[in-house]
Amino acid sequence: MFDPRNATRSPATQRIYACYAIAYTVVDVAAAVLFVIGSILFFRESTTNTGTWLFLIGSILFGVRPCISLAREWHLLRIGDYGDLAAEA
Fold first, then answer.
1. Residue 3 lies in a domain
2. How many domains does the chain have?
3. Contacts of 16 (CB under 8 A, 6+ apart)
4. Domain that holds residue 48
5. Which candidate in 16, 20, 56, 89 could, as Cys together with 72 as Cys, close a disulfide (CB 3.0–4.6 Å)?
6. Which positions, given as ranges, span the membrane (predicted)?
7. What is the model's pTM?
8. Is residue 76 a contact partner of residue 6, using CB atoms and an 8 Å limit?
């Protein structure tokens, strides 16, 4: 797992890697946007509650990022050549 060569072993692994990279980036941008909007909402007392929720959701999204990486590696491992993995170990 987490071998950079896994992403380029075949066209299928390249496609899988690209899809997970897009998901990772979307989650990363969404989390950052929620943090910025949450920060802006803290300037007014009337919107502090909403800002707090956006911070919470952004924090959860930052926690999703490593889960996406782990899911990608697991997916690549499942479709990989197990003979090569055994030989490398």
1. no
2. 1
3. 72, 75, 76, 79
4. 8-88
5. 20
6. 21-44, 50-68
7. 0.76
8. yes
